[in-house]
Specification:
The protein is mainly α and 156 residues long. The protein has one domain: de novo design (two linked rop proteins), CATH 1.20.1440. Helix content is 68%, strand content 0%. It is built from seven helices and no strands. Helix 3 (45-61) runs antiparallel to helix 7 (127-154). The longest helix is centred in the last third of the chain and has 28 residues, at 127-154.
Length: 156
């Protein structure tokens, strides 16, 4: 086996790497590599509204008492997710299949309002938080109800 002896020569790092002034003195084009911009997915307004209320709820859930956070708080959280799921599925269903899914979303919204009322009565939510989230849920209920009436009027 033959060994090769390689001697390292002292290189001056200042001579090899360009300085910042040298790079930006010229009229160079700087390309920034980022992820490609995806077109935003067009969701229904009611779906984005429920999602914003769910994000609000996520901030409130941490303030729940520990003994209710994983029981009643978890039930409220899963009901929110069920409503989001129903609305998302209904947005892609055919006209004939939408109505039962929307009716399920209405029932889940009423159930969510009931669970929030129970949490307010148990002092897990203070008045200000309860009023804010209840008003937003009432608006969501009106939006889903309007969607239901629109489908019923179009269906013979």
């Amino acid at each position: 086996m033959e060994k090769l002896y390689v001697f390292s020569l002292p290189f001056s790092p200042q001579k090899l790497t360009p300085r910042l002034e040298k790079i930006f003195e010229r009229d160079d084009i700087i390309v920034c590599m980022t992820e490609p911009i995806k077109a935003p997915q067009r969701n229904l307004p009611v779906l984005t509204h429920v999602l914003s209320v769910y994000k609000l709820w996520q901030g409130y859930q941490n303030d729940f008492p520990k003994n209710l956070r994983y029981t009643l708080g978890g039930k409220i959280d899963s009901t929110f997710l069920n409503i989001l799921e129903c609305l998302f599925i209904a947005s892609y269903e055919s006209k004939n299949d939408k109505l039962p899914t929307i009716l399920l979303a209405i029932r889940k919204t009423d159930l969510l309002k009931f669970f929030l009322q129970v949490s307010w009565e148990l002092n897990a939510l203070d008045n200000k938080k309860y009023i804010l989230i209840s008003e937003k849920l009432n608006e969501i209920g009106r939006m889903i109800g309007g969607w239901k009436r629109g489908i019923e009027s179009k269906t013979p």
